[in-house]
Amino acid sequence: MIGTACGKVILLGEHAVVYGVPAIAVGIDRGARAEAARTDAVSCTLALGDAVRASPADGSDTGRAFGAVLAACGVDFGVEVKAETTLPPGAGLGCSAALGVAIVRALDGLVGRAGAPPDEVAERAMAWERVFHGNPSGVDTTTAARGGCLRFERGEAGASVRAVRLARPLVLAVGHTGVASSTRTMVEGLAHLRERRPDLVAKSFEAIRSLVDNAAVALETGDHAGLGHLLDLGQMVLSGLMLSTAEIETLCRVAREAGALGAKLTGAGGGGCVLALVAGDAGPVLGAWERAGFRGFATTVGGATETP
Ligand code: PMV
């Protein structure tokens, strides 16, 4: 049985989304794939690419996450799962969520639940995400399962998710700082800042909420110049929350100088990736990043592709 899932970039709302502020995320055309097969053995094994092998009792994070996802999927027989991803880990592109969703889909196929609704798949994949991220908002697993452009809001009684209809395709350049970062560490860092400076963080979250609201309108009306400006403002707010780094600031500046409409970090920050919105051709931004010593790729989001 085979399961697939896409990676994601968060346009606006990362971190604040953990505390109930809405975020806008888009699925990208890179992701993860998993293959699951029943085995005669009672044991369960997971191979992540060529490098990592794990099983529920081996004490590793990956092993524990695998055990949690087997339980969430109700798998009580021997399985062998092989999973791979084209997403760099620790880059803010939803690598672990894409793997979790792909593995859930492959396991779902084995227990007669192939084609389960994306939100149910995403919920089961949260068992995997919680092991790595502690307190994930769910935006990564939801976007990995649904794709398209989504407005996601965490709530007491579950998340509210709606597809954002893009008036025009969105062309993004995604650049990597070359520095991996831990989402768990970054989320915990912000939680500490929130304890020490509750007013600063509350004001920043309100600013992010209004950027997200305005960005939804810009996406739906095709106002990409306006959206770019909102991304730049988002980067300023995230820097004020100590989530940026020198490499992130350089990537953003180089992208803007090369004609990007706006640029910001995406995901947890502290390293990872930057996204830049471009007006059509991502080539100049990717070229400028390369000359500055950074690697990147382009991705186009075509429109709302919410799966029912
Ligand atoms: O860096 P990533 O891809 O794990 O994205 C994390 C997004 C956060 O908002 C920082 C955390 C979350 O759980 O939503």
Topology:
Elements (H helix, E strand, L loop, with lengths): L1 E11 L10 E16 L5 E5 L3 E3 L6 H13 L5 E7 L9 H16 L7 H16 L5 H8 L2 E5 L6 E4 L6 E7 L6 H14 L1 H24 L2 H17 L5 H12 L4 E5 L6 E6 L4 H9 L3 E7 L7
Parallel strand pairs: 3-5
Antiparallel strand pairs: 1-2, 2-5, 2-6, 3-4, 6-7, 8-10, 8-11, 9-10
Bound molecules: (3R)-3-hydroxy-3-methyl-5-(phosphonooxy)pentanoic acid.
The number of strands is 11
pLDDT under 50 segments (min length 5)? 303-308
Gap between N and C termini: 22 Å
Ligand inventory reads:
(3R)-3-hydroxy-3-methyl-5-(phosphonooxy)pentanoic acid
Order of helices and strands: EEEEHEHHHEEEHHHHEEHE
Strand content: 15-25%
Radius of gyration: 19 Å
Helix content: 40-55%
| Overall outline | globular
Structural class: alpha+beta
Largest sheet: 7 strands, mixed
- The residue-averaged pLDDT reads 94
Write a compact overview of the structure shown:
The chain has nine helices and eleven strands.
Care to describe what's here?
The chain is α+β, with helices and mostly antiparallel strands and 308 residues long. Strand 9 (262-266) and strand 10 form a beta hairpin. Helix 5 (183-196) crosses helix 6 (198-221) and helix 6 (198-221) runs antiparallel to helix 7. Helix content is 42%, strand content 25%. The strands form two sheets. Strands 1, 2, 3, 4, 5, 6 and 7 form a seven-stranded mixed β-sheet that branches. Strands 9-10-8-11 form a four-stranded antiparallel β-sheet. It is built from nine helices and eleven strands. It has helices at residues 61-73, 95-110, 118-133, 139-146, 183-196, 198-221, 224-240, 246-257, 283-291, and strands spanning 2-12, 23-38, 44-48, 52-54, 79-85, 149-153, 160-163, 170-176, 262-266, 273-278, 295-301. (3R)-3-hydroxy-3-methyl-5-(phosphonooxy)pentanoic acid binds at residues 14-15, 17-18, 92-94, 133, 136-137, 139-140, 183, 187, 267-268, 272.
